[in-house]
Amino acid sequence: MNPDLTVEILSDFQKLEEYVFDWTRLWSLSPCREVFGTLEWVRACWRAFGKGRHLFTPVVRRRNVIVGIWPLALNNGCLGPVGTPHSDYNDILCSPEDAEDILGAVLERLGEKPYSWKKGQVENIPQSGNLWRAAWGLRDDRKHGLYLSAGSICSRIVFEDNEGFIAERILGNKHLKRKQNRLSRFGAIEFQHIEDRGEIKALLPDFFRQHVERRGLLGERSMFADARERYFYHCLVDELDPRAVLRFGVLRLEGKPIGYHLGFETDNKLVSYKPTFDVQYAKWSPGEVLFKKVFEYVAERSLKECDLTVGEEEFKNRFANLMSRNWSLFFFPPGVPGSIRLRVEHIKGWIRKSPNLYGAFRPLRRPLRKIVGKARGK
Questions:
Q1: Can you tell me the distance from the alpha carbon of 327 to that of 132, in angstroms, rounded to the nearest whole number?
Q2: In terms of pTM, does the model score above 0.85?
Q3: CATH code given to domain 160-303
Q4: Cβ atoms within 10 A of the Cβ of 86, count?
Q5: Cα 240 vs. chain centroid, distance in angstroms?
Q6: 121 burial type by CB count under 10 A (0-12 exposed, 13-18 middle, 19+ buried)
Q7: Class assignment of domain 5-152+327-375?
Q8: What separation in angstroms does the CA of 174 have from each of 191, 207, 261?
Q9: CB count, 10 Å around CB of 371?
Q10: Using an 8 Å Cβ cutoff, are 52 and 75 in contact?
């Protein structure tokens, strides 16, 4: 480990909040300045899902100056981001120049306490972020117990320097115009972002209802059937500024809300996080009209992009002009159990590349778990 670096593992969230100035400073230095890396986001996640978890956040100092923060928590022996699984992007807060040294120092520090955790798993790592670069850049002798795997595809609409594409394919899209004209036969269409917390909270029950009914049409269970998920969105409204960062859009038909779009505006871009619409109007495509209004908002604000985040839905592919990949990082403590888990993760990653192999592998999962359990002395 770099002798200039010291690593403290914080287990008290109130103590972590004392570093708000350093947190904001490091967030501004990071190449991926996402809402998911802000203290406000992490606080909302901790309020909603912190019960039963243990904060396990490395804070890295260089000569008493905080140079890195990695908001991790321990859940049933597994280390992961505090925002898991709700953060679409996860990263270490630090300067890009320090990323490799900080990741190496944290891994060495975690290795000193292998008894307290059995696995580390960080998903949704952007390829342009500190964590991805650091994991690839570490020297081979510092990569012991580390495995980086390709993850989900992310879709983005880059507005900046793409005026012709945006004007024709997005704002001038004839399909979306027809959908809006068809819906407008039933009355006046209005779209606005609500900037009052009390008004947003009054609309959240209808937002939840629309999502539950929409997923029900697909034979799926909505996340909002869970009370903790509903509470999480109340926490987001509390923690994020609805006049700037939190963008809670409402699509109304003759004054009645028929669709919602919850997103985040940071670093000159809009992140599309959770859209929904009233299934009563599904025949007239309110979801597509909703996104037309969102795209118009991005253009009016002269934002550089609209990030449609993870997932390869057909709708996203139709409009995105840039695709990127998220990655997953797995890391394990030193010792025999950690080495076995690392090997298993490598095998799983290889098997996932072939659907036929994956199907054949499923019956072997239970025996492999028994082998790992015996290696741990259970």
A1: 7
A2: yes
A3: 3.40.630.30
A4: 19
A5: 16
A6: middle
A7: alpha beta
A8: 19, 28, 22
A9: 10
A10: yes
CA angle, 283 as apex, 281 and 286 as ends, to 5°? 55
The sheet with strand 322-331 has its strands ordered as 54-55, 72-75, 78-81, 119-126, 322-331, 146-158, 305-310, 269-277, 256-266, 246-253, 189-194
Burial class of residue 299 (count of CB atoms within 10 Å of its CB; 0-12, 13-18, 19+): middle
CA distances from 330 to 34, 144, 263 (A): 22, 11, 29
CB hemisphere CA count around 169 (13 angstroms) = 15
List, in order, residues 6 or more apart from 14 with CB less than 8 Å away.
none
Cβ neighbors of 53 (< 8 A, separation 6 or more) are 73, 74, 75, 82
Residue 378 pLDDT:
42
Phi and psi (nearest 5°) for 61? -120, 145
**Residue type present at position 99:** A
Q: Tokens standing for 7?
A: 């690593």
274-292 core/surface letters (b: 16 or more CB in 10 A; e: else): ebbbbbebeebbbbbbbbb
| Distance in angstroms (rounded) separating the CA atoms of residues 158 and 169 | 12
Number of Cβ atoms within 10 Å of the Cβ of 300: 8
Query: Can you tell me the distance from the alpha carbon of 269 to that of 159, in angstroms, rounded to the nearest whole number?
Result: 9
Domain with CATH 3.40.630.30 in the chain: 5-152+327-375, 160-303
For the residues 66-95, what does the mean pLDDT come to?
95
- At 172-187, the pLDDT tens digits run 999 999 999 999 999 9
Nearest CA to 351 out of 144, 152, 149 is that of 149
Lowest mean per-residue pLDDT among 53-62, 159-168, 253-262, 359-368 = 359-368
Left if phi > 0, otherwise alpha if psi is -120 to 50, otherwise beta: which for 63?
left
Cα angle, residue 319 at apex, residues 294 and 151 outer, rounded to 5°: 100
CA angle 302, 132, 12 (to 5 degrees): 90
